[in-house]
User: Fold this.
Amino acid sequence: MKDTFLEAARAVPATVKLVYRLVRDERIDERKRAGVVAALAYAALPFDFIPDRFPIIGRVDDLVIGAAALQALFDEAGEELVRENWEASAGSLDALLGIVDTVSGFVPKPLRRLFQLGS
Assistant:
């Protein structure tokens, strides 16, 4: 598990580029692209459902919302388009996708419906 997180951490620049490219790609549903932008804006804003001043739990809502938005974006794009836009190793992409899938599994049902993730 530690290796997975290290691999994903090394791929942060590639992840930023991937999300940027997918958000600009018109083959992806506009609502999914807008959802990712909204989730990123939410994470950047100082106002949260759970304030960031609470250790650990204050960051969880940002993480869960971000993961749900990324999962929806990656699902909409499909594996081929995601891999086409990835600039790092295949192992780092697999690590990223695994982490996003795991974290998005903790998304509450109302939020899952918002991002149209499976039930």
Notes: The first helix runs from residue 2 to 10.
